[in-house]
Write a structure and sequence with these properties.
The protein is an alpha+beta fold and 414 residues long. The protein has helices at residues 39-44, 175-183, 205-219, 286-302, 304-308, 327-335, 337-342, and strands spanning 54-63, 68-85, 92-94, 97-98, 101-102, 106-113, 121-135, 138-146, 150-153, 162-167, 191-195, 226-229, 255-259, 262-267, 311-316, 347-350, 357-359, 370-372, 382-388, 392-399, 404-411.
Length: 414
């Protein structure tokens, strides 16, 4: 949901004039343009950048017991790689290869480091070499740059516990990341989950860098992986279709993963209005998208991994209850809620309403607890902390003044 006090435009006219676009820059970059030698000029009409720098520091994405996805953005087209090792060494190198060719002459980088040891901590840094000229038989390199040194850990398959933090509905307020992160203090966590509406709408690459990547890498993302599922506001704006070029989840826009005793499923709930609504101009089809997800969700819930897991957790932006009667809510209720009941999902965590709340199971309505995080305004922002071990899964919700405003515990049954 949008914040009317922050943006005086009618929220149903969000595809009209983008009043704040000018302050965010115009460094748009399409997938095809990432392969062009003068990508900046092709996509923005502006002169290409003249200095080879990191526009976004390394940020960790999809992680497994034997791999880690590392992303970063450079100002100029380049050839980039990751140097990594253990106990202070950098004796190994990884770069991205597609169809036999090493990825190069691009600015948006993803390098998957694989063949790793489960449960081990690695140090890493990224290196990028500017490509000044790319002729058919003559490639000319320019300046090389190197990041600071960071660390990451792979998942241990035999982990007995897992903990994570959840942000939702930040709505283009980058300072909220550091503030809410500070509420966690020194408590350990394994990853961070972004549960939708990090933005009001998608404008360009600079917005993604300034309002999400920079604050997240400053707080946690160089050392802890983050996963990101869209909210309804991430489907809006001229750059919405480019958003997935900057993020790698463990399986796509909607996905599942197992970490310790938890089998988690993340749903991409789409828009909150009907596909036929005039503001979408006939270029969305979220109904079929949600139907497809429901079939996928049932497959996940029927899987051996899900059945054996001590806890079954769903994270989604639009909650199927306590969110009014907009089409998106009703469609999520129709498609997903019966599956949550049928397969005994242990907890569902959502956002969207800007009204935080802990909703225990209600017979005849929903047999699962539904937790909804707060909104973007000061005094209503929340940080959700989840910890699961062999005895219980405990969720705690903190308001931005540090007060606990919600708690729920699921006792292990399996």
């Amino acid at each position: 949901m949008s914040d009317a006090t922050k943006n005086p435009l009618d929220r149903r006219s969000f595809l009209g004039t983008l009043t704040r676009a000018g302050a965010l820059g115009t460094a748009a970059l399409t997938p095809l343009a990432t392969l062009a030698g003068s990508a900046d000029e092709v996509t923005t009409g502006q002169p290409a950048a003249v200095e080879h720098i990191f526009l976004a520091k390394p940020y960790l994405q999809a992680v497994s017991p034997t791999s880690m996805s590392i992303r970063f953005i450079t100002a100029l087209p380049s050839y980039s790689w990751v140097e990594y090792g253990v106990q202070g060494s950098f004796d190994k190198k990884a770069h991205a290869i597609t169809d036999g060719m090493v990825n190069a002459n691009n600015r948006i980088h993803e390098i998957v480091v694989d063949g790793l040891t489960p449960g081990l901590t690695y140090n890493y840094r990224v290196v990028s070499k500017e490509i000044k000229e790319f002729k058919p038989y003559n490639l000319t390199y320019g300046t090389s740059i190197q990041s600071d040194t960071y660390q990451f850990s792979t998942i241990h398959p035999a982990a007995k516990e897992v903990s994570w933090l959840i942000f939702n509905d930040i709505h283009d307020r980058p300072a909220s990341f550091a503030h809410l992160m500070g509420l966690n203090k020194e408590n350990p966590y394994d990853f961070v989950f972004l549960n939708g509406d990090m933005f009001d709408y998608q404008t360009d690459e600079q917005q993604i860098i300034d309002h999400l990547l920079t604050p997240c890498t400053s707080c946690f993302a160089t050392g802890k992986p983050m996963m990101f599922v869209r909210g309804n506001h991430e489907t809006r704006g001229k750059y919405a279709r480019n958003l997935k070029d900057y993020f790698t989840n463990p399986g796509g826009q909607y996905f599942s993963f197992q970490w310790g005793p938890v089998f988690a499923m993340a749903l991409d709930t789409g828009e909150d209005k009907e596909d036929e609504h005039p503001v979408y101009a006939g270029i969305v089809d979220f109904d079929h998208y949600r139907v497809k997800q429901a079939a996928w969700l049932e497959q996940q819930l029927q899987s051996k991994a899900c059945k054996k897991a001590k806890y079954r957790v769903v994270m989604m932006h639009i909650p199927p209850h306590y969110s009014g009667n907009a089409h998106g809510t009703l469609h999520c209720r129709e498609l997903f809620s019966p599956l949550f009941d049928k397969y005994k999902v242990d907890i569902v965590i959502a956002g969207h309403t800007h009204t935080y709340g802990v909703h225990p199971p209600v017979a005849g309505t929903h047999n699962y607890p539904l937790i909804i995080g707060g909104g973007p305004k000061e005094g209503n922002r929340t940080l959700i902390r989840v910890k699961a071990d062999q005895q219980a899964l405990t969720l705690q919700m903190l308001k931005d003044d540090g007060a606990e405003v919600g708690r729920y515990e699921v006792i292990a049954k399996r």
